[in-house]
């Protein structure tokens, strides 16, 4: 097992990609702090993964003080912390007209500020255990869709943070910091988001090859499988890296003629 005896905090792990990551971590021998805001869904995850292997922590990442509370609860319960997976995200539809300072603060608080604070608050533990951090970004960090302005900006900032801390923390503390940027993933929240746009629940079954050359989009479990490499010891000394996980290149891609 690649995470035997490791303690892993996965933020936003009551649904979607985070839940898939938490599940995979337990399969690989880890004990996992399941984090989210919804008690019912959190309890379902804990029940599935095992109460002796998990701790449910309910807290709102829009509150910067949550970082200290989450780290304290994690260490007090399991006695240590080896790994942080900053997965939770606030996906807000916004463009130049609808984005203001208040929205930017809300989005950045969840997507960038508190992930940084979690690393800062846990640094003593991560350093002592020569731990690792994996930030879950987004391919939107490179530019983003016109209606995902604030979200895309926050993920771009996370990408810079990853590269900066990946170098500084490894040199000074032996802590690796890397990032994966998932593409289009079929999560419960993505289905809900599309429903709010008036689309049917099976919209993902027929997608243009421009967006899904494989004939489908990516499952959360496929992202979770890749996460294990980046947070396990088999990653070796690799740090400060940002990797896209999508089924086509994000930069320099030419759209097929039939999709233009």
Attribute tags:
SDR family oxidoreductase, SDR_fam, 260 residues, NAD(P)-bd_dom_sf, Rossmann fold, 2 domains, alpha/beta, 42% helix, Sc_DH/Rdtase_CS
Task: Write up what this structure looks like.
The chain is built from 7 helices and 7 strands. The longest helix is centred in the middle third of the chain and has 28 residues, at 101-128. It is 42% helix and 13% strand. The chain starts with 6 loop residues before the first strand and ends in a 15-residue tail after the last strand. The chain folds into 2 domains: 7-183 and 220-244, 3-Layer(aba) Sandwich (Rossmann fold); 186-217, no CATH class.
What's the arrangement of secondary structure elements?
Blueprint: E1 7-10, H1 16-27, E2 31-36, H2 39-49, E3 54-58, H3 66-78, E4 83-86, H4 101-128, E5 132-136, H5 149-173, E6 176-182, H6 188-196, H7 220-231, E7 242-245
Parallel strand pairs: 1-2, 1-4, 2-3, 4-5, 5-6, 6-7
Helix pairs in contact: 1-7, 3-4, 4-5
Pfam families: adh_short_C2 (PF13561)
Protein name: SDR family oxidoreductase
Family: Belongs to the short-chain dehydrogenases/reductases (SDR) family.
């Amino acid at each position: 097992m690649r995470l035997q005896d490791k303690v892993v905090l996965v933020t936003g792990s009551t649904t979607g990609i985070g839940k898939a990551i938490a599940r995979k971590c337990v399969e690989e021998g880890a004990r996992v702090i399941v984090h989210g805001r919804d008690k019912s869904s959190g309890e379902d995850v804990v029940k599935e993964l095992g109460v002796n292997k998990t701790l449910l922590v309910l807290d709102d990442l829009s509150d910067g003080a949550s970082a200290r509370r989450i780290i304290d609860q994690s260490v007090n319960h399991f006695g240590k912390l080896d790994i942080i997976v900053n997965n939770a995200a606030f996906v807000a539809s916004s463009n130049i007209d609808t984005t203001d300072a208040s929205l930017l603060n809300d989005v950045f608080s969840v997507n960038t500020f508190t992930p940084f604070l979690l690393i800062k608050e846990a640094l003593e533990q991560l350093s002592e255990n020569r731990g690792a951090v994996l930030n879950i970004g987004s391919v939107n960090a490179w530019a983003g869709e016109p209606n995902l302005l604030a979200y895309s900006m926050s993920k771009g900032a996370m990408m810079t943070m990853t590269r900066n801390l990946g170098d500084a923390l490894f040199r000074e503390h032996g802590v690796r910091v890397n990032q994966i940027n998932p593409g289009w993933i079929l999560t419960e929240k993505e289905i809900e988001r599309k429903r709010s746009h008036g689309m049917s629940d099976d919209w993902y079954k027929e997608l243009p090859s421009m967006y899904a050359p494989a004939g489908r989009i990516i499952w959360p479990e496929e992202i979770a499988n890749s996460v294990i490499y980046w947070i396990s010891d088999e990653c070796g000394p690799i740090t400060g890296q940002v990797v896209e996980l999508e089924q086509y290149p994000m930069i320099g891609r030419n759209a097929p003629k039939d999709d233009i």
